[in-house]
Amino acid sequence: MTTLTAPDLLGQALLDYHGGRTAAALTVHCNAADDEPLPAAYFFRTLLQMPALERRALDECRGRVLDVGAGAGCHALELQSRGFEVKAVDVSAGAVQVMGARGVRTAARHDLFAPLPADERPYDTILLLMNGLGLAGTLDGLDRFLAHARTLLAPGGQILATSSDVSYLYEDEDGALVLNLNGPYYGEVEYTWTYKKQTGEPFPWLFIDAALLNDAAATAGYQAEFIDEEEDGQYLVRLVPVGLAEAANQAI
């Protein structure tokens, strides 16, 4: 019996761009918004091309960094240039191949919930950019990730992540929210990639508003600090496990 594997469309697009096909672009399908193109070039942006929230997040990094959902490695490369020890991970095999070719020293294929290898020290910073909390997929997935992240973090460690409030997608012409109160949380959406006439498997993505994240973080035993926010509702948050923070302070 042959097992069919979903195509790595993101990886294909990144490999094509890295190989010189600068027009490579995915099409993003979302059940809550219109289709839109996503140029592969966006994953190769330089520091000056990054949004202000991403640049701020890089400035807030400390210690050993785990860059989750690293794509083509633009953040990992910038942090390396600043002297950080960085491990960059992504579920896309093609992305990991591109990161290695671009000079990311430690790149591996892992998902959000991969356990810490027995021979690997915990991290001081877990970095989740490009609406990186979306990798959790759902509110339940976020709870699961926050519990799991404690096993990846050193005492005094932090999660630096971006997300967005997408309630504006559900506003009527008068600006009032039109939500199905009996349905799932409005920030739980479904995405699909298309590239070179191939369509990948749907995957869940989470956009969580700041108030709900603050509640989820508190329930999971984290202190949430909202560092910065942009006009479109996207924000940068620092999450610090309370127990780990206290252990670090007692050790000083």
UniProtKB/TrEMBL annotation:
<dbReference type="Pfam" id="PF13649">
    <property type="entry name" value="Methyltransf_25"/>
</dbReference>
<dbReference type="GO" id="GO:0032259">
    <property type="term" value="P:methylation"/>
</dbReference>
<dbReference type="InterPro" id="IPR041698">
    <property type="entry name" value="Methyltransf_25"/>
</dbReference>
<feature type="domain" description="Methyltransferase">
    <location>
        <begin position="65"/>
        <end position="157"/>
    </location>
</feature>
<dbReference type="GO" id="GO:0008168">
    <property type="term" value="F:methyltransferase activity"/>
</dbReference>
<keyword id="KW-0489">Methyltransferase</keyword>
<protein>
    <submittedName>
        <fullName>Class I SAM-dependent methyltransferase</fullName>
    </submittedName>
</protein>
<dbReference type="InterPro" id="IPR029063">
    <property type="entry name" value="SAM-dependent_MTases_sf"/>
</dbReference>
<keyword id="KW-0808">Transferase</keyword>
